[in-house]
Structure formats: structure tokens, C-alpha cells
Amino acid sequence: MGVKVEVFRMILYLTFPVAMFWISNQAEWFENDVIQRKRELWPPDKRQELEEFKERIRKQREEKLLRAAQRNS
Q: Does residue 17 or residue 39 have the better pLDDT?
């Protein structure tokens, strides 16, 4: 009985990752579900706002780093 259980476990350990890899690499699934969901969550107008926010934060960080560098010089 022990050998059968070990064989089952080995099959499970090998099959599960391969199946997950295969499922996650299906281009049709990705295009249909993931991209559509992304568009629902972040419509184009919201994406523009998000990009502007990222740019403001990036500029603030750069200015902070420049001020810190100038103080240390």
C-alpha cells in the first residue's frame, strides 16, 4: 500500500505544476479574461490619471533626492 501512495503523490507533485503552467500560458484565456478584467478595473481615462499620479510621485522623489544630495555635498 505504501508504494501506491508514493506513486500517487509523485504523480500529483509532477502533474499539478505542469498543469498550472499549461493553463497560465494559454494565450486565448489570457486575452479574453485577464485583459478584459484589466480594462474593467482601469478604464483608459483612469489609466491616464494613474500615469499622471505616478509622474508626480516620481518628480517628488527626484526633488527629495536632489535636496538630500545638495545638503550632503
A: 17
Instruction: Provide DSSP, 6-28.
Output: HHHHHHHHHHHHHHHHHHHT-HH
Residue showing cell 479574453: 32
The pTM of the whole model exceeds 0.70: no
Give the rounded distance of the alpha carbon of 36 from its chain centre: 15
At residue 26, the pLDDT reads 81
CA atoms within 13 A on the CB side of 24: 6
Give the chain's count of helices (H) and strands (E). Answer: 4, 0
Is residue 37 within 8 Å of residue 30, measured between CB atoms? no
**3 state DSSP class of 50:** helix
